[in-house]
Amino acid sequence: MRNILILVFLLGCFQIGTAQDAMSVLIAQNLTDSVALGRIDQFRKGGYEKPFDCGTHTREEFIATAKNYLGTPYQYGGTTADGMDCSGLIFRTFRDLGLSAPHGAQALARFGEIILDKSELLPGDVIFFTQTYSTRKLVTHAAFVLADGQMIHASTSKGVQIIPIDDPYYWNAHYLFGTRIFGVVPDLSEE
């Protein structure tokens, strides 16, 4: 039920305009699930749709770099070929390309333009999931979007692997949103 409330709120909010408007609408909808509201409020307070500069790197470079880690075993908090978690895969991919990114799914979700509709996701976008384990955080899992409805992620049981985004048994029910970091130019005038 919480997943449905969060998704309905996010869908309604982000379709009306900016992400800021979306979060405002979410809070104003008077949802009765205090746990969901708390997670959304915590995420909102930390900021979102922050700019990220990928330099001259392409989507294809990110995907090829992430695929270098296929078969790497899962290790909570890991960021190396010896073992990595979901955000460790993304962190390591960025690092291998000489870029700096946070390690942690919730921290990663704060960067890039939010894309709610899965049909609008492009290869190289980052996709986020909620409530994949027990925590107070809104965002609990991250992966890179690949072509043909696939994603590359670090599974706790199988390590880094490629699977369908719309897996009917698990991932589809936990989908939250995606972010687009390519084509989002940082606004340096605010610094």
UniProtKB/TrEMBL annotation:
<keyword id="KW-0788">Thiol protease</keyword>
<feature type="signal peptide">
    <location>
        <begin position="1"/>
        <end position="19"/>
    </location>
</feature>
<protein>
    <submittedName>
        <fullName>NlpC/P60 family protein</fullName>
    </submittedName>
</protein>
<keyword id="KW-0645">Protease</keyword>
<feature type="domain" description="NlpC/P60">
    <location>
        <begin position="56"/>
        <end position="182"/>
    </location>
</feature>
<dbReference type="InterPro" id="IPR038765">
    <property type="entry name" value="Papain-like_cys_pep_sf"/>
</dbReference>
<dbReference type="InterPro" id="IPR051202">
    <property type="entry name" value="Peptidase_C40"/>
</dbReference>
<dbReference type="InterPro" id="IPR000064">
    <property type="entry name" value="NLP_P60_dom"/>
</dbReference>
<dbReference type="Pfam" id="PF00877">
    <property type="entry name" value="NLPC_P60"/>
</dbReference>
<keyword id="KW-0378">Hydrolase</keyword>
<dbReference type="GO" id="GO:0006508">
    <property type="term" value="P:proteolysis"/>
</dbReference>
<dbReference type="GO" id="GO:0008234">
    <property type="term" value="F:cysteine-type peptidase activity"/>
</dbReference>
<comment type="similarity">
    <text>Belongs to the peptidase C40 family.</text>
</comment>
<keyword id="KW-0732">Signal</keyword>
